[in-house]
Write the structure tokens for this entry.
Amino acid sequence: MDVLVEFARLIAQVGPAAVFVGAGFEGHTAVIAGGVLAHQKLMSVWVSWACACAGSWAVDQTLFVLGRRGRQSRFVQRAAGVPAFGKALRFIERYPIGYTLAFRFLYGLRMVSPVAIGMSRLSAHRFLVLNLLGAALWAGVFTAVGYLFGHALGAWFGAHHLTERQLIWGGVAVAGGVAVALLVRRVMARHAR
């Protein structure tokens, strides 16, 4: 049982930073995990939400600035070459406020959208406010999903009385699955380019 206590302490220490970074780069999975951690009392639900909101906002704000000021950069040129980029620009021009609030929820448009918005006519001040509102809403939805899912997960673990060894191997399996999924996603994205 000492291993589980130490593992819980480690998660509580790195959880907020992991949710912050994960929300900015990986997306909803990290935010859901933060909600699960909050349900398991390993971190506060408000800390989980705030870290998810801040991480998403910071990365998207940076990508917006790159789109606005770095149009000739290699990163922006690569983002503009993605097929979803043109689709994002069309939506932005038609529904700038709604799209800016909703792009985090749209699969496949998460990373190119802030760059495309930066290249649009939407003002930097308006994006700043809409980005914060959108990040808060998005973080709230997925933190809540994780928090609610955490109850089901806790009930499942309680009903199955898993041993320490099973929990550790389960954690290794989940981490390995996530690593493989991210690797496959990266290879497929590279191949699609």
About this structure: DSSP finds nine helices and no strands in the chain. Residues 124-160 form the longest helix (37 residues).
